[in-house]
Write a structure and sequence with these properties.
By secondary structure, this protein is α/β, with parallel strands linked by helices. The chain has 11 helices and 12 strands. The protein has a single domain (7-268), classed as TIM Barrel. Helix 6 (133-141) links the parallel strand 8 (123-125) and strand 9 (146-149). Helix 1 runs parallel beside helix 10 (246-263). The longest helix is centred in the last third of the chain and has 18 residues, at 246-263.
């Protein structure tokens, strides 16, 4: 069977035998506030994450015409959806590195051009873009490694996207696109299914409440783990309830690092720490030593 390739995300390798690549998805949980974004970056760095991720949209291209004039309650008052989308987007001066690697999900081709100026180590392709040929082409043309999320997609759609991208530096990411996601819809065995079907490194992008299932994903071989981070799950915003607060993120990173250490190499051995127990508790060194007649 073909060996699954390793993918370079900046200075880190992602794949089998490598430490889990842990990313804190800031997304739009900053609610358009650069100060909140910096606090989330600081919390992610303090938790020990490898990187943070943002979302970048060009509202004129991403907001459907029929949605633009719809009114909604926001932190800026009762405004149109289009006005809201403009307010949560950061501009050129706002994208500055804060001592941690960062990447972005781009929702349109103009956003790819914008993020290209910052020399990001990779792009995350959100589940909504699995069937978006023009956007996939723009991301492929960047020549950078890609992480393809697979929520709300059939195996046929994933296959078509993988065939279209036709690249070695690709990570697939199992995900279910509901916020928050019910445990019975997480379906962690898809990690094995995707790895076996496509022979790429496979990660997990979780939207559930709590940490255990994300830790289980790493134990099942997810080499890339992503969860949304928030300062407070009660904050305004559609993704906040399915996010992890800073204290929880610190625990999550600790659990993930503990699990990857505990996985070992699968080779049976007798550890030095077992020798004293062996000496005290075993009557015989081998089964045959205890045989009679």
């Amino acid at each position: 069977m073909d060996r699954i390739p390793t993918v370079a995300l900046g200075e880190r390798l992602v794949g089998d035998g490598q430490p889990v690549y842990i990313i804190a998805e800031i997304g739009i949980n900053h609610n358009g506030s650069l100060d909140l974004a910096k606090q989330l970056i600081d919390a992610s760095r303090e938790a020990g994450c490898d990187a943070v991720k943002f979302q970048k949209r060009t509202p004129e291209l991403c907001v459907p015409e029929e949605q633009r004039s719809k009114m909604r309650q926001t932190p800026w008052g009762y405004i149109t959806y289009f006005e809201y989308r403009e307010k949560v987007e950061f501009g050129w001066d706002d994208y500055e590195q804060q001592g941690i690697q960062w990447l972005a999900s781009c929702w349109d081709e103009e956003s790819v051009k914008f993020i290209e100026a910052f020399d990001s180590p990779a792009y995350k392709i959100q589940s909504a873009a699995v069937t978006d040929g023009p956007l996939l082409q723009a991301l492929k043309d960047s020549g950078r490694p890609l992480v393809l999320s697979t929520g709300m997609s059939t195996m046929e759609q994933i296959q078509e996207a993988v065939d279209f991208l036709e690249m070695d530096q690709l990570v697939l990411c199992h995900s279910t696109s509901s916020y928050p996601c019910a445990p019975e819809e997480i379906n962690l065995r898809m990690i094995d299914t995707l790895r076996d079907a496509f022979r790429y490194p496979v990660g997990y992008s979780g939207h559930e409440v709590g940490l255990p299932t994300t830790v289980a994903a790493a134990a099942m071989g997810a080499c890339y783990v992503e969860r949304h981070i928030t300062l407070d799950r009660a904050m305004w915003g559609s993704d906040q309830a399915a996010s992890v607060e800073p204290g929880g993120f610190k625990r999550l990173v600790h659990y993930l690092r503990t699990v990857e250490t505990a996985m070992g190499d699968g080779q049976k051995r007798v550890y030095e720490s077992e020798l004293s127990s062996m000496k005290k508790l075993r009557r015989f060194a081998r089964v045959s030593d205890g045989m009679t007649g």
